[in-house]
Design goal:
The chain is an alpha/beta fold and 201 residues long. The protein contains 5 helices and 9 strands, in the order ββαβαβαββαβαββ. The longest helix is centred in the middle third of the chain and has 13 residues, at 95-107. The chain starts with 17 loop residues before the first strand and ends with a strand.
Length: 201
Amino acid sequence: MTGDHYFTAEPTTPARPREVEFSVAGRDYTLTSAGGVFSADRLDPGTAVLLRKADLPAADAAGPLLDIGCGFGPITCVLATVAPAATVWAVDVNERARALTTANAARVDAADRVHAVAPDDLPPDVTFAQIWSNPPIHVGKAELHDLLLRWLPRLTPDGVAWLVVARHLGGDSLHRWLVEQGWQVQRHASQKGYRVLRVTR
C-alpha cells in the first residue's frame, strides 16, 4: 500500500492508463484516466448525478467556467463541449490529474480553451460565470470549507456554482454551512443519495 490519495500532489501509484466511457446530454465521451487520480476506473456516481441533474451551460455561454478538483477531467470536458465558446479552468492539486485533463481536452477538441492548473497557478483576477465541483469531501471538513471559501467568492455577481455532495457524507450540513456563510443555496436535485446544490450570491 502507498500513502497516495487522489489529492496527493505527485502520486506514486502506477499510472496504468485506462479509458472511461460515459454519456452526458446525448453525447458520448471516451476519456483517458489513470491510477492515482479520483475515480480512476469510471465516472464517479456523484459526478454523473451532477452532470445529469444540474443545468449545463448554454451553447453560447462564454464563461470563464471553473472545475474545482477536476480529476481526469470529465466535468471540464463536458463543459468545454456543451459551451464551445467558453474558456474552462480546471484546478487540481494532483499533477497527474492535470496532465490527464489537458490530454482529454485535446480529445474533445478543446485544448485551446482548457487550462488545467494547480490552484496557486490560476490568475487571481479571473472570475467565473459558473463554478462546478464534485468537491473532495475526504480532505476533511476544515479543508473543504477552506477550499469553498477560496473559490466561491470568485463567482461573478450573477454567477452560479453547482456542487454535488453525498447526503451521507454531509450534503445537508454543507448546505446549511453555505447558507451561514451568506450564500443563496437551493437543493436543486437529489438522486441516488446525492444532493445537487445550486449556489449563488
